[in-house]
Amino acid sequence: MGIRSVLKGAVIAGIMVSVGAGSALAQACEETEFSSKTGQLYLDAEQAAMTNNDYVTAANKMNQLKSMGLNCYEEGAVLKLSAYINIQKGDRKAAVRDLLSALDKGYIADKDRAQTYYNIAQIYLQEEDINKSLEYMNKWRQAGGKPDRTQKWQLAVLYQRVDNFKEAIKWAELVKAEDGSKYDQQLYDLLIFLYNQADDKAKLASILEEVVAHNPTERKYWDAIAGNYFASNEERRAFEVQKAMYLAGMLKTEDEIMRIVNFYNRFNVPYQGAKILEKEMNAGRISRNLDHLELLANLYQVAREHEKAIPVIQAAAEAGGGGAMYERLGRSYADLQQWENAENALQKALSMGGVKDPGTAWVQIGQSRYERDDRSGAREAFRKAGNRAGRSWLGFMDSEEATASALDCFQYQSALLNVTNEAKICKRLSVLGEDQMTDNCKTVNERLDAAEKAFNEAPSCRGQRT
Q1: Where are the transmembrane segments (predicted)?
Q2: What pLDDT is recorded for position 461?
Q3: Is there a domain that residue 20 lies in?
Q4: What are phi and psi of 275, to 5 degrees?
């Protein structure tokens, strides 16, 4: 049964309360009965309407009665019966005119006025005249009407229809309080709309959480929660909601899943973001293009997962990343101290072009050669770099070699000095006689000659000979 049928039934029931010749009228009317002529016509109309459901005949008889000179009692009864008949005929405007006339002329007893206002409100609601319906709902309340759950709901909807969200929220919350633990999806949907329109993000978040608890697989509510957090600039909470949606399998499109990956990146959880991205690329839900490969490599590198980053960078380079991507591959190999692989990748990067800073690439090639003890090759690369870093490396290598040479010469000098001192001691001992000479003194001259020769012939001691 539709809402219009329900409303119509409620209105008819309300009007029936006060329909009939015996109904009490306002005290101002002193008449208490029909005349014989009008009474029979009224009874014929009543029978046609209520017994025979012949509303056309009933309406015709009502028109006859209205054209006659009626006393107050008769007119009051006729107006109320006419309202009933017009409702049944579907002529709601005429029914309202009858009821308002009865009210204005005092033909509705005080105890029935509230119900009549309510009936008029329901008729206007059927007519989609929201403002008039709300006006008479308020008159009904002012006349003593006590809203039950249904009427509170009507007031919430009516105020929502006229964009008075504050009042609509008040009545909708009263309905929710009356429902207690009972869950009514229609009510919750209305509250979600109202809190959103009123920009009450705290209440919206709370009601959405209740709805999700009852509808854990209904995505639109999850989206609403995330949207509410976004609107409140609470991106961390929005991320947690989106993460829960992903884990529940609600996010399926590339854009949706990439949003999760980017969230992980933004909130400094690169390894988790990388795992999701790689998993979804392997599953085919995210395209394996250069941009995504580059992002995956970034995430692994930021997470210091260089071994995982290398095959991704290799794939990105092969997917059209050019020299820049091979340069990056070379740096990654260098991070892992895989020096030969590093040089190969960097050489390929330079040969392909697209390297923003070739000098730095040559420095890295020089370093890879240095680490493999190819000093001449390293010097060549550092000279090709032609930048400050290359010159610094060359200066370092010069200093390193000078230090090594100095240490080497120092060893020859130390050995010569030791034997020279020993020869001096032996010479003093010889004055005391042969029997005072040690065995070492017997060979000291030979050893001194050998030490002097070694010193004089050592390349590292050139320029230090006397």
Answers
A1: none
A2: 81
A3: yes
A4: -60, -45
Domain-embedded: residue 304: no
User: Rounded to an integer, what distance in angstroms lies between the CA atom of residue 10 and that of residue 15?
Assistant: 9
Tokens in use for 464?
């230090």
Query: How does DSSP classify residue 324?
Result: H
Instruction: State residue 153 phi and psi, 5-degree precision.
Output: -60, -45
In a domain, 388, yes or no: no
3-state secondary structure of 124: helix
Q: Which domain holds residue 132?
A: 1-145
Q: How far is CA 118 from the centre of its chain?
A: 46
Number of domains in the chain: 2
- CA–CA distance, 233 with 236 (Å, rounded to integer): 9
Query: Is residue 31 one of the residues assigned to a domain?
Result: yes
Nearest to 109 by CA among 47, 12, 20, 35: 20
What lies within 8 Å, CB to CB, of 145 at 6+ separation is 114, 115, 117, 118, 151
Q: How confident is the model at residue 173 (pLDDT cuts 50, 70, 90)?
A: very high
**Tokens found for residue 190:** 């209305």
Closest alpha carbon to 23 in 90, 67, 87, 84: 84
Which of 125, 145, 165 is the last residue in one of the domains? 145
Our separate counts of H helices and E strands in the chain read 23, 0
Where does a domain end: 91, 117, 145? 145
Q: How far apart are CA 54 and CA 69, in angstroms?
A: 25
**CATH number, position 13:** 1.25.40.10
At 316-350, the pLDDT tens digits run 888 888 888 899 899 889 988 999 999 999 999 99
Q: Answer for the pair 394, 383: CB distance below 8 angstroms, yes or no.
A: yes
Min mean pLDDT across 105-109, 163-167, 458-462 is at 458-462
